[in-house]
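Methods — Computational structure assignment.
A single polypeptide chain was analysed. Its primary sequence is given first, followed by the predicted tertiary structure written as structure tokens.
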Amino acid sequence: MTQLTILTPAEKRQLDSPPQFTQQDRQRYFFMSGQLRSIVSRIRRQDNKIGFVLQWGYFCSRARFYPADQFKQRDIAYVKRLFKCDDVDLSNYAGTVVTRHRHRILETLDWQEADETDREQLYQQALRQARHQDFPQDIFSALVDTCWKQQIVVPSYHDLNELITQSYISAEQTLLATVQSALTAEHTQHLEGLLRPIGRASRATLAITTYKTIDQSVQPKHIANSAAILQIFRKHFMALETAFTAIALSDKATRYYATWFQKADFQQLSQFPNRHKLYLHLLGFIQHQFYQRQDSLVDVVLKSVTATNHRVKRELGEHDQKTKRERDYAIQALSTAHRSAAQFTKDVVAVVGLNNATPNEKYYKIEALVADYESTDASDLALIDKLEDDLKRDSQQDRYYALMEGQSIKLQRRVSAAIKVLEFDSESDATDILEAIYYFKETAGALGRNPPIAFLTTQELAAVRRDGIIVTSLYKCLLFLHIADAIKAGQLNLRYSYRYRAVRDYLIEKQQWQQNKAQLLRETGLLAFADGDAYLESLEKVIDDRYTQVNERFLAGDNPYMSVDDKGYCRVRTPSIDADKKSFISSTLSQTGYVPILQVLKEVNRVSGFIRSFKHLSPKHHKMKPTEEILMAGIVGNGCNIGISKLASISSGIREHTLHNTVTWYFDINNIRAANRKIIDVIHRLALANNYLNQPSVIHSSSDGRKVNVAVDCLHASYSYKYFGKEKGVTDYTFIDERQSLFHNTVFSASDREAPYVIDGLVENPVPEGQVHSTDTHGFSESIFATTHFIGVAFAPRLKSLGRQKMYGFSTRGSYKKRGYKLLPSRSINKKLILKHWDDILRFMATIKTHHASASLLFKRLSSYAKDHPLYKALKEFGRIIKTQFILTFFDDVELRQQIQKQLSRVEQANKFSHAVFFDNDQAFQEGGRDDQELVNGCKLLLQNAIILWNYLYLSELVVNTPSRKDRSVLLDTIRGGSVITWKHINLRGQYDFRRKSANDPMFDFERIKALRIS
């Protein structure tokens, strides 16, 4: 196998050459600190001093050394000025002197050259990622990141490329050998049967590939069809189960092989030179379909049961409203009757007590009272009796069960078929429900007289049993309700699934963790947390010091924005910050007239090369790439929600077939995110973008969601009258940093909590040292505080009712109170609980950081348990420490509070921007599958970032062309007070012309823009 093409020639040259420093970079990396000055003072020759400082600066920037003949002239001139020696020649700086200097730099900074052990570790990491079919570019970045974390000199591009290529070769050879040994003759015969083509030779296809798309409908006939298709894949999966067990594909690898197989046509599949490799792709497709279809039917069960529950409760509410007046009248009649009875009794007693009346007179008087009492109250007796009956029925919840029984047929038509084909995990905790499920399957829903009833509550059992006989329709309804509740509570799991397995099945395997723990901790940057006791001890001191500092400042009157009431509740006031000067940037950019979106994409591609990120689905594919115009058409068609077919029909220079083929093979969420990173990298290098940083050493980011309608059937979409009216939709969740680059987005159900997806966005992107991340209330939980701490991010959410937020301490509340503190912990941290599960917490974090499973999936499973999972309890307990540390800082730091508000305002503006770019088809998703929605959403984010970068380029050139220093300073200050997230000057609509233009000169002088310096 030839070496993989991981980087372009330009990217390779950039990596293997010293970095292009800006003036600020030189000031930072060639800064003569006391340590550096001390070392240099012992070097005698001036040329060696200059050479040492240059090597030091380049190494601190790139973790690599470069030959002296590659040193940049501007860097040499800068360092010469530091030593005031312009006439020094570096031509003699070579040989052993250079080698000795490198050793000294490594020794001083506590780094090391990669030895055989390090290279083997890097290879094993690459091998693990290659087995998951990670893209070579992602493996490359991960290896460089590992070198930085472990302080190992980053190898050259050639060495890393060779290592990654070898890992792919080894992973593939091992996997194919496993496939060959795992497949019996019967297995091979079964697979060959699936590979027999149907149809004419020119249009030949495989029968199994006609089931690529999963139906998102919850209509009974569609559900029945989905269940039937699942049975087909179940039959194939079970026939090959031993092979699947032996091959043990990861979820990620399974998705890769399946995606390739379902995208390929019969001709492409028939061209495989290695038959076992074709078997591998087919096996991946079968497993993927089986897992995914299991998940979709669970979604059907949950949605159907939830809908039935809501319908019954709504009918109960409507019935209560309807009979309220009648009940009120009956209650009034009953009250009147009681009063009449009391008066009647009183009158009778009075008659009996008459001294002057004869017995006959008393009799006739009592008879008259009785006649009068009956004629007055007899008309109300029916209402009173009815009220008594209603109350009796309501106390037994007869009406609820009657309504549920009335919904049974509808619910059975949707759920029964799904329950019969789902493969539940026999090790699930809900044993009583499992018994009922197995019986339901064995009897095909014909329950008979004695179905299992252990899962029913006493009240349910009384309702479902009438005259000693089980009411089948109500029994099934209650069984489905219990199944749905148990799945959501984590008590009932699937055996074969992506999203509904037991938590233990998602974590790094216990044996692998125990064998490779030290290496995994190093790779994931978790080595500092290895000793739980020592780490908690250090946090104990930090928390205690923070309580002391904040309280002392408050008591001394140094925090005028904080107050504490008599009940001990704390409040803080945050002064408003200057309003953004948005109108200046918007009006300035509008002076250009309307700029076509295609021109924006071409200019941005010219400076970023983002189009090069669109690679063929196969990491080893070397076919000719589509043109820039075709790829840009795919971006616009998806990102603006126009659709590929419609875009082709309203455009010039585009063929629909070519566009569809390009989107099929080159539009993958990994490619799109890589293209976005290319644009973001350019934004981050611009002086004007970095001018927005409040502190150069700290990056403040934020995330928030907006609700988007879905116009088609979609199982993960949910109803919300507040956001969608009578329609349904999803959440589009976006991340933004201070420089206003949109570095991540994702799509999930509108009913899901946002907090777990915060971690996904942070882990999926490089976390710069000193990053602070803010969310609104929906993005906050104690477990998220814990997780962000482990990944090196300071979590700073906006908390409502802040004064009532619970704070914690290691010492008791009384010991803090004795010091006269106003801010006190609610209770002490349970260190024993944390330390008992410390190893599990580290394993959980390593699972997330190695991308073995996503944080959102893990948290969704953990938080679903009816009783808190021990790992989840320990994680939340640790998170309380970090949350307390943040709250104390929040109380004491008014500037932090202002920055949080400002950063959250930016993400709200980004959501408005998203709404504007995603303009067509009523701004509703036209795809039901989440993967398809993620792809469309990624293209939309790419368009947003392209517009932001274009705005930066225009404004940067405006600054460059402003000659007066005073005018430039005013201009920079005005720009910094506004936002580059503006789009009114961009023409997103109209007819699109993708034909090449004869004159295509660049609009911006990017070299001058890169040279822009802002003091």
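Note: The longest helix spans residues 275-352.
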